[in-house]
UniProtKB/TrEMBL annotation:
Domain Glycosyl hydrolase family 13 catalytic: 172-582
Domain of life of the source: Bacteria
GO BP terms in the entry: glycogen catabolic process
Family affiliation: Belongs to the glycosyl hydrolase 13 family.
Species this chain originates from: Actinokineospora auranticolor
InterPro entries: GH, GH13_cat_dom, Glyco_hydro_13_N, Glyco_hydro_b, Glycogen_debranch_GlgX, Ig-like_fold, Ig_E-set, ISOA1-3-like_C
Annotated segments matching region Disordered: 478-505
Keywords attached to this entry: Glycosidase, Hydrolase, Transit peptide
Biased composition (Basic and acidic residues): 478-492
Molecular function via GO: amylo-alpha-1,6-glucosidase activity; isoamylase activity
Protein name as it appears in the record: Glycogen operon protein
């Protein structure tokens, strides 16, 4: 042995071994991918299986052109990974990208272009788009500039909430649209900080999970269309065109211009958690912002096109997403990228769950064929970091693959239940033959999710994609002319009904019926087994003027008008009390499907009724569904919880014979959408006793909810 321990350097990996383009550097660590702070420097690691060479391009904040270009020496590459540690960089001012060499041979799937500076797929911050709606200069050599996120946020002990799935009430909203309206009254409209100011509103409403439409960095200015009526430039408002999967959208942060969007986002999550509200992200892994062969080269296309995308034999892009390209999700490298991304948001941002846009694509192979056992979906279901995260699939895609009820679930995945949406819409507007199907949907769709339980069903009637609830009862047809596509875009099968007048009206009879139908939908949604999801603004009658595809509208049609909180106070209060009704009754939030067995209780866990007790009518012409939902566990009187729900889609009132209650119990009226204002729904614990304990009258086109218990409230 020559030498002693005190002659060794402090670290064996904190010094340069050579200079690359004048910068001290050494071979880097291959994993993790991306840019990572290491002692004295930054480690850069990027994957490209088919590039012949790679260079790291360094920029400084505020400077248009690069300050240096560092080719990766041959010995800095292992397999398909280029890795280099560079020392002495100012990480606060650092911006970086990559330049990949290789063949430009589209027919073989390669589209390398050395003239392009490429964004790091693993970049945790993207700079250059800190101001909403600001277009990049046409001659900018690198419009989406990768940067390093700060790593000094104090979570103050925050952890994900881990609420039971069956207890969730999800509130889908758009970060910008929630507070952008001038009436919002917040200090920073349209931002994460603005949303924080509205947390008291969310708490008062009673929701306990906020589902945020895309917050991964995207470019809202990539829409070239204009509103044909006004000439106003349209945008990509919703954000389903991801540019940076690891980076929160900078222009949603009031501090984004200072590069503090990461901390602002984390603070929003921490504050929501303090209020008992989980955070679910709407994530888009089915396609990217690079589009088809005519689209921009931003990242994946220039790094390794045939790895990251599904390609036809001719080298074109399969388009199962409807947006020009489809990510090759079950390729091992792409699969690893998606898992790494979600781990990042779960670990670094304390996210509680993810809703996957067009998730059926995640189960396709490289040629687009559905897989029986998709590796990506299995990996996400069993990932140790994601163990406590909710996983929700939009179980269809634009290529015609519809998997509602059959999505590969591994006993972990829930689904947006499109069957629930369509059934409730059709029943409420009076379509024949819907009674039996509505009964199935009210129980959490056991025909679809019998093995998984009711919480596998995310019940919704409206969402960002389609009519708002106000528009659902106000329009027979979509009115998307402002989108610049001659009203061809958006779904034609809306199952909506204008109740006699298309759009706004002053007719009191029409308005009265629309208002009742709105409450019918809300009450059915919040008393159904499964997980209800409310669309932001439905609780106050927000309208999109009949547009059912507002993806491109950064206007008041998409913004939450906070003046409605006052003008629609009655509807808001109805929604709040319906949410509270759900929370108070375990019979409405079962973890397992009801099967009609009594199990030693006073009643079966579910029983069906009609105008006569215990005698339902499932015929084609029936428009009445009545159920007695019973839970013999905690809740209600003496540990028993009993809820009677009746939905009448007839034009006439009906007299309903009620099931007899145990001695000492009384039926009380929790909600009646046909009642006069002030009596349509009641505070939990203050429900008035039903005058006739044997019969109840249900008005035409209305929903009635009774609760039962001994002595006081049910």
């Amino acid at each position: 042995m020559t030498g002693t321990l005190d002659q060794l350097p402090d670290r064996l990996d904190d010094g340069a071994t050579q200079f690359v383009s004048g910068y001290p550097a050494r071979p880097g660590r291959l994993l993790p991918f991306g840019a990572t702070r290491v002692p004295g420097g930054v480690n850069f690691s990027v994957y490209s299986n088919n590039a012949t060479a790679m260079a790291l391009v360094l920029f400084e904040r505020g400077r248009r052109d690069p300050v240096a270009e560092l080719p990766f020496p041959p010995d800095f590459r292992v397999g398909g990974v280029f890795a280099m540690t560079v020392f002495g960089l100012d990480t606060d001012r650092l911006r970086y990208g990559y330049r990949a060499d290789g063949e430009f041979h589209p027919e073989a799937g390669d589209r390398f272009d050395r003239t392009r500076v490429l964004t790091d797929p693993y970049a945790t911050v993207l700079a250059g788009h800190e101001e909403w709606g600001t277009r990049t200069a046409a001659d900018d050599p690198y419009p989406y500039r990768a940067a390093l996120a700060p790593d000094d946020f104090d979570w103050e002990g925050d952890t994900p909430l881990r609420l039971a799935r069956e207890d969730l009430v999800i509130y889908e909203t758009h970060v910008r649209g929630f507070t952008r309206h001038p009436s919002s009254g917040v200090a920073a409209p349209g931002t994460y900080a603005g949303l924080v100011e509205k947390i008291p509103y969310l708490r008062e409403l009673g929701v306990n999970c906020v589902e945020l439409m895309p917050v991964f960095e995207f470019d809202e200015t990539d829409n070239m269309r204009t509103d044909p009526r006004t000439g106003r430039q349209l945008v990509n408002y919703w954000g389903y065109n991801t540019v940076g999967f690891f980076a929160p959208k900078a222009s949603y942060a009031v501090t984004g211009r200072h590069g503090m969007q990461v901390d602002e986002f984390k603070n929003m999550v921490k504050r929501l958690h303090r209020a008992g509200i989980e955070v679910m992200l709407d994530v888009v892994f089915n396609h990217t912002a690079e589009g088809n062969e005519l689209g921009p080269t931003i990242s994946f296309r220039g790094l390794d096109n045939r790895t990251y995308y599904m390609l036809t034999p001719e080298g074109y892009y399969y388009n199962f997403s409807g947006t020009g390209n489809t990510l090759n999700c079950n390729h091992p490298v792409v699969r690893g990228f998606i898992v790494d991304c979600l781990r990042h948001w779960a670990a670094e941002y304390h996210i509680d769950g993810f809703r996957f846009d067009l998730a059926a694509i995640l189960g396709r192979d490289q040629h687009g064929a559905p897989l029986a056992n998709p590796p990506l979906l299995e990996a996400l279901a069993h990932d140790p970091v994601l163990r406590d995260c909710k996983l929700v699939a939009e179980a269809w895609d634009a290529g015609g693959l519809y998997q509602v009820g059959s999505f590969p679930d591994y006993c972990r995945w829930s689904e947006w239940n499109g069957r629930y949406r369509d059934t409730v819409r059709r029943f409420v507007k009076g379509d024949p033959g819907m009674a039996g199907d509505l009964a199935t949907r009210l129980l959490g769709s056991p025909d679809l999710y019998g093995r998984r339980g009711p919480a596998a069903s995310i019940n919704f009637v409206t969402a960002h994609d389609g009519f708002t609830l106000r528009d659902l009862v106000s329009y027979n047809d979509k009115h998307n002319e402002a989108n610049g596509e001659d009203n061809r875009d958006g779904d034609n099968g809306n199952h909506s009904w204008n109740h006699g007048v298309e759009g706004p009206t002053a007719d009191p009879d029409v308005l009265r019926l629309r208002a009742r139908q709105t409450r019918n939908v809300l009450l059915l949604l919040l008393t159904s087994q499964g997980v209800p999801m409310l669309l932001s603004g439905d609780e106050v009658g927000r309208t999109q003027s009949g547009n059912n595809n507002t993806y491109c509208q950064d206007t008041e049609d998409n913004w939450f008008d906070w003046s409605l909180v006052d003008t629609e106070a009655d509807l808001l209060e109805f929604t709040r009390l319906a949410v509270a009704l759900r929370a108070a009754h375990p019979a409405l939030r079962r973890a397992r499907h009801a099967d009609g067995r009594a199990d030693g209780g006073f009643f079966p866990d579910v029983s069906w009724h009609g105008t006569r007790a215990w005698t339902p009518d499932w015929s084609e012409h029936s428009r009445l569904v009545a159920a007695l939902l019973y839970d013999r566990g905690d809740g209600g009187a003496d540990g028993h919880d009993c809820v009677y729900l009746a939905a009448n889609a007839y034009w006439e009132p009906l007299e309903l014979e009620l099931p007899s209650l145990p001695e000492g119990w009384t039926w009380r009226v929790a909600a009646d959408t046909f009642a006069d204002a002030g009596h349509r729904i009641h505070e939990v614990g203050r429900e008035p006793e039903l005058g006739d304990q044997e019969w109840a009258r249900i008005g035409p086109q209305s929903v009635l909810v009774l609760v039962a218990g001994s002595g006081g409230a049910g």
